[in-house]
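queue> pop job 88
queue> type: inverse folding (structure -> sequence)
queue> payload:
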């Protein structure tokens, strides 16, 4: 690793110390790599059968005329739990890939307005919420289309989860200097200031008891950060407890 110590001209004891340090470092990085590989393999192996199980559950649920209420409820719970687990596995897989540098981005010019309209249409359907888009310009960015969709879906998903159904959600598109600015705004729970820097960490959730019902994994925002930074952009949050949150993503403009 680049961080190895090179102390050729140092006294013997210091050289020995440096050798021991280097040995420890290379063992550590080996075991980190093994851990990443393990997470990646397990996620991959579990995702395939679970996707099949989910497919079967969905197809039984669709033809549910001869099921009792209890059976329907049990199947619906099983379907939503498998869906949740599949998402968790996909997130783990993406993060493991990002850690080992295997997360590739296909950066190309993207018409931001069209992409946001498409994603908002999808999100409105499954969330049954109204999501308003405010855009003063037609904006083109340099991004990986699918990864950008994943980013926006995650942020919209959170805005939906952490705000009351009768409150509005806004997506604001603008540009400043060399950057496009995408803001996802909700008038929901908000996030206390002391937690705002931690929510982008893996598995971090502000309040487990408050969040339990929302069924998240605590990985969404760390994925968002990894993906946005991988596309050369940044993500930040501004929020006040009880008033709502604004997540801001910046990306490079394409001229
Ligand atoms: P989760 O799967 O828990 O939603 P995320 O990584 O997406 O995981 O978010 C981490 C935590 O940040 C959430 O558990 C929640 O406490 C907080 N959070 C994220 N987005 C919002 C939001 N729009 N409003 C309030 N809290 C939020």
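queue> result:
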């Amino acid at each position: 690793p680049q961080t190895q110590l090179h102390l050729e001209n140092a006294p013997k004891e210091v050289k020995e110390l440096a050798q021991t340090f280097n040995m420890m470092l290379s063992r550590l990085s080996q075991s980190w790599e093994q851990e990443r590989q393990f997470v990646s393999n397990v996620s991959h192996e579990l995702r395939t059968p679970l996707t099949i199980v989910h497919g079967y559950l969905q197809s039984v649920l669709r033809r549910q005329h001869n099921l009792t209420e209890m059976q329907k409820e049990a199947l619906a719970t099983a379907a939503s739990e498998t869906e949740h687990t599949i998402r968790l596995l996909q997130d783990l897989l993406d993060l493991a890939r990002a850690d080992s540098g295997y997360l590739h981005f296909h950066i190309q010019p993207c018409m931001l307005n069209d992409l946001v309209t498409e994603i908002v249409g999808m999100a409105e359907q499954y969330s049954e919420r109204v999501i308003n888009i405010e855009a003063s310009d037609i904006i083109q960015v340099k991004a990986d289309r699918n990864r950008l969709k994943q980013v926006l879906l995650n942020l919209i998903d959170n805005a939906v989860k952490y705000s009351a159904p009768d409150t509005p959600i806004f997506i604001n598109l603008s540009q400043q200097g060399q950057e496009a600015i995408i803001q996802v705004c909700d008038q929901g729970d908000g996030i206390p200031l002391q937690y705002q820097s931690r929510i982008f960490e893996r598995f971090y959730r502000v309040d487990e008891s408050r969040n339990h019902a929302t069924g998240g994994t605590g990985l969404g925002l760390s994925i968002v950060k990894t993906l946005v930074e991988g596309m050369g952009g940044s993500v930040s949050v501004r929020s006040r407890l009880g008033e709502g949150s604004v997540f801001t993503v910046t990306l490079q403009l394409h001229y």
